[in-house]
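Same chain as my last thread, 642 residues:
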Amino acid sequence: MTSFGFNIANPSMFQLAREGNFRAIAYLINRYLAPNGIYARTAPVQGGCLPVRVEFQWLPNNRDLFEQMRVGLTRFICHQIWRLNSEAIDGVRIVGLWAGSGEAQVLWNQTVRIVTPANQERQTQVRSMASSMVQSMVPQAAEILNFKILRAFLLGSSAVSAFILSFWWIYSDLNQPRSTRVSNPVEPMAPATTSSPRPQKVRAALETVPVVKHLDLYDPTDPTVTMMFGGDVTLGYAFEDLIGDNHQWAFNNMPEYQQADLAMVNLEGTLTNVDTEYPGKQFHFKADPEAVEVLTHGGVDIVNLANNHAMDYQAEGLQETLATLDAAGIHYVGAGEDIVEARRPEIIEVKGQQIAYFGYYAADYHSADKGVAGTNYALEERIAEDIKAIRDRVDWIIINFHWGEELSNYPQQWQSQLAHFTIDQGADVILGHHPHVLQGAEIYKGRPIAYSLGNFIFGGNSRSDYDTAVLKVSVREKQMKVEFLPVEVRKYQPVVVSGNRGKMILENIEILSSIFEQPMASSMILDAATSQIVEDPDKSVFNTASDTILTPSPRAAGDTETFDSTPFTTDSGITDWSKLTDEDSEPVSQEPEETVEKREGVNPIVVGGAVAAATVAAAATLANRRQKIQLPVLPRTSSDRG
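reply #2:
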């Protein structure tokens, strides 16, 4: 999601803008433009159209650069108006002016239609009333009325322009299927996989689910759908103490997330102001609902809530979290006010491909039930039922598991078996969360399994500086490209790195992945139809070995730094053994686990022994990269639980 979000912390200004106050709209837009020498001046809304005059104090010398700037600026302004969801605004008329020469010169003049939930219902009613009149009076309108002709009219009389504009809106939308979601100012491309309209409802295991059309795209002309997956995000007390209310800080250097078609994280915590702490827990994570702007500014489209912190403030806290996400336009899976909502998949259609998301929590704590809020418990019988219900109706199925042992670099065997079982049922991508550190990834039957994506922006009880990675998945024509992007986090701000830093992080993932029969490389292409790896990237639909653009970090030049993903430390930087886990009372494994003994201090002998053991383990891993882990087995049904 490309995102330049309004600061919802100032509801009075935002509400004025939503009501159509042109001065408030100019104020909100200029917060982003003015620092760059660009100023937007607005006039009162006329006939649903907001006039916007954009004045430039400087211009690039290169014509191509100017064109890119014009297109980007137009999309930006349209996106901000779309986010207002105003009943008063149906579109914008943007006039670009060059003011640097003393006398204003018109650079371009463009009118763009904007469809929002607020005006979509009204437009549907108008279309219904005008349908017969339009089709009987001007049957050839579609052949003669196009954007070029429309634009010529818009340069003339405003009254004629308003009539032609409204006429074109009505005619072009007749008999077109409408989504329950909002439309984007940029015209979407045709579906990549089918030429006929697809069903906009899918029957899931427990209910019929609407398909959400996602049109907020960075590049709607590219048929490839790009998805980004990050690890644990907690906007808790540690994050607030360090960053304060600067909601733009965290993602300021992460354009990869903002440019992805769909971006997802594991939201490990609540967005609530209630104080009803869940009893018996050591850590309770929450942030003010206004902190949701961290996610919207970062381009996050969907979050997984199936985790051990979704119910930190019980049902009331979860309900406010869900309401906050709904208001921000962020989808969620894995938790809900009852079992139906907790199990509900989110099915999103983007560029003609329908992608289903699920979230499961591998522990029977605060599980949702009939009339009971909670999380979605990862029972195999439930997983199989959920996937099989929609497998033939969607193109891709993404599964999130909150599972495993904290700070463990390797998954347990029951996790591997559950992942394989899930793919056998029809899943395409499996993502793991909870250990707070990176774990390896494997390919099973042509499908990727990332066992743990580690911490992403974990502002709970962890330190603010660490190394991690995000998983980028690109899909097109039943092929899937998967690759890890190395990430360095400093003061809870992630940045994709290259050079020695990026290489070091990717090499660590490679070592962690070497225990699997078929380790996942940092970049590979998979064919979903044949369940095989595409050995020659030039013969794939992507036609490239790698399109990843890595942004060098200011620290990338140093050769002396080492990979560091340890999440929990004291202020001195020494590991605090008393905070090795964030939830002693809630292990996210259905198997009996050995208890980690708590230590009050750090024993140098123990630390030295741990380093030596890690060295030996790494050597053994490289020597036995085809040996599978042998650990306890996951019970397959609820009746098997002890």
